[in-house]
Design brief:
Rossmann fold; about 280 residues; 12 helices; 5-stranded parallel β-sheet; alpha/beta; Arc Repressor Mutant, subunit A
Length: about 280
């Protein structure tokens, strides 16, 4: 699945897509293993767009039409399938799932090596926002909570948002009125509708949105100013969030690097307080 997904993502990397084209791309990523065998009608139905939109999507990627794109996918994914079968012959399902997570981390390493600017910029944006709202609903709540816990040690006002609906809108309004300039969002599969709505509310409020999500064509990407992809493992019953958790620590480092003097001061203050209160066992 990971190889097939990567093959599809490679086709659309760096492309400027319309919202309808993003939906088509997301469907191809979500159905990567069978994307080469979908008719234009099937793909249009999955993405809830017209068949001409599918044709325009293929042409936007540089193909004469959808059949040419599908032929390319078929050759690419057939090769990926043979490689995948070879991998499946070694190890049980747990080993395979963990190997996929290793691949996800390697991809994260490659992304940062190729272009560290988005992470650096995200760290600067988040460090400068006071307060800093951090959104994480449903499956993403634990990842967001981990970020908020550590960020609070180096940032004066971190506000964790884990509820949806009108309460979430209220808290975003309060953060904006208190001076927030940005919001960090973790939006992971399955993408909660309330999370996408929250991104739109934050955007309407004038906040700059930094989003950690599993794919550059996830539904959250279109509603974000900065997108930091971190793939999610889906080989087991419940998703593995190893790469998103790694991104948490990378982002925290980027925040610390953006304000080193303030970071050092706050960390030293915390250590003195923790020692005085005997927070940790010697």
């Amino acid at each position: 699945m990971t190889r097939a997904r990567d093959a599809v993502l490679e086709l659309i990397e760096g492309q400027r897509l319309t919202p309808a084209q993003r939906r088509i791309a997301q469907c191809l990523v979500a159905h990567a293993t069978k994307s080469a065998y979908l008719s234009s009608g099937d793909l249009a139905a999955l993405a809830q767009v017209s068949q001409p939109s599918v044709t325009r999507f293929a042409m936007a990627l540089g193909y004469e039409g959808y059949p040419a794109l599908r032929d390319h996918l078929r050759v690419t994914l057939d090769a990926s399938w043979h490689l995948g079968k070879a991998e499946q012959s070694a190890g049980n399902q747990y080993q395979q799932a963990l190997n996929t997570e290793i691949d996800n981390l390697r991809q994260l390493v490659t992304d940062v090596a190729d272009d560290a600017v988005p992470v650096t910029e995200a760290g600067q944006v988040l460090a400068a926002s006071q307060p800093l709202p951090v959104l994480g609903l449903r499956a993403a709540s634990a990842v967001a909570a981990a970020f908020a816990y550590f960020a609070a040690k180096v940032h004066p006002d971190v506000r964790l948002l884990q509820e949806g609906g009108s309460v979430l809108s209220d808290r975003l309004d309060q953060a904006r009125d208190a001076g927030a300039g940005a919001m960090l969002a973790f939006v992971l599969p399955r993408y909660p509708r309330e999370a996408i709505d929250a991104l739109r509310v934050a955007r309407a409020a004038g906040l700059q949105i930094v989003t950690v999500t599993d794919s550059p064509v996830s539904p959250a990407a279109a509603e974000s100013d900065l997108v930091l992809p971190a793939a999610v493992g889906s080989r087991l019953v419940f998703d593995l969030h190893v790469a998103p958790m790694a991104m948490v620590t990378v982002l925290l480092q980027a925040m610390c690097d953006a304000a080193p003097a303030e970071t050092q001061r706050r960390l030293e203050t915390f250590e003195r307080s923790a020692a005085h209160r005997q927070v940790f066992v010697p």
